[in-house]
Specification:
- Helix content is 40%, strand content 20%.
- It has helices at 2-33, 62-72, 100-114, 131-142, 188-191, 208-218, 241-252, 256-266, and strands at 37-38, 52-58, 79-84, 94-96, 119-124, 150-159, 173-176, 183-187, 222-233.
- Helix 2 (62-72) links the parallel strand 2 and strand 3.
- The relative contact order is 0.15.
């Protein structure tokens, strides 16, 4: 019995080591393929915060959602929590059955359209944002930036995120091929090319981040990471990889060869 237990523990350790090696390999591939470039200054202006709809998307993290709502409401006038089937129903939230990430994305874009806003700032309720980093993020919106050149914006991130979305300590806006889906701000010109996501094909929402990058590129704009601030994305969150990955591939196939060419050029480490 003890011998079998030792064999089991050894096998688990080996599998974990192999998984860590694979993750490290992916990070190395991303790092090798990415050249940090600062967003050039072009016609900078201070963005009107009334043009921004903030959407906090939630599943069973009501307290965290209310904390984020209170934080964002100190600087932004249009802030809502969209809830996806949480067990406890908060009357202050916009409530739905469990619609998963694609449904939450669709409802956030729909809300932004309804309120006639130019930008959607979406943040998942499991994302950790300290008051200090929120203050730094807010500063970005209080200074002139090249917003006409930007299709998608996001703070840098720690935890579970792509290598190029980490903080490169540039203290500036940095061009990247795409940004993560758990915290971003995107222009409606980009989002209207994606909305609505067909949840019968891609319910879990993997690949929407790639589409934002693709259509930003198509519009001769940039995706940028803000190295002046950062959020934390916990390692143990997100959906089961195999199912989400399968849905993403099926979803990509609905966009034709242009997307495939973009991925091969800008995201060469992706298996597509």
């Amino acid at each position: 019995m003890i011998a079998k237990l030792k064999q089991f523990v050894k096998k688990q350790f080996q599998e974990k080591s192999q998984n860590n090696s694979a993750e490290l390999s992916l990070a190395e591939k991303q790092k090798a393929a990415y050249v940090p470039t600062i967003l050039p200054s072009k016609n900078p202006y201070i963005i009107d915060k009334d043009d921004i709809q903030v959407s906090i998307v939630n599943y069973n993290l009501n307290s965290a959602s209310n904390k984020l709502k209170k934080l964002f409401s100190t600087q932004f006038n249009f802030v809502e929590v969209i809830d996806s089937g949480s067990k406890e129903k908060d009357p202050g939230f916009i409530l739905f059955d469990n619609i998963y990430y694609s449904g939450l994305f669709n409802e956030s874009v729909k809300l932004t359209q309804k309120n006639n806003k130019k930008w959607l700032f979406l943040i998942c309720s499991d994302v950790e944002l300290t008051p200090e980093n929120f203050s730094k993020l807010s500063t970005t919106f209080q200074l002139p930036q090249s917003w006409e050149s930007i299709g998608v914006y996001a703070p840098s991130s720690t935890g579970r995120s792509h290598q190029f979305c980490k903080n490169y300590q540039t203290n500036n806006l940095r061009i990247v091929p795409m940004v993560e889906g758990f915290c971003f701000m995107a222009h409606m010109d980009v989002l209207k090319e994606i909305y609505p996501v067909d949840s019968t094909v891609n319910l879990l929402g993997w690949g929407i981040d790639v589409l934002k990058g693709y259509f930003t590129h198509q519009q001769n704009r940039y995706c940028v990471i803000d190295d002046t601030c950062e959020v934390h994305h916990p390692d143990d969150c997100g959906y089961e990889n195999i199912q989400a990955d399968q849905q993403m591939i099926q979803y990509f196939q609905t966009f034709g060869d242009g997307l495939k060419q973009y991925i091969h050029k800008e995201l060469p480490w992706m298996n597509y």
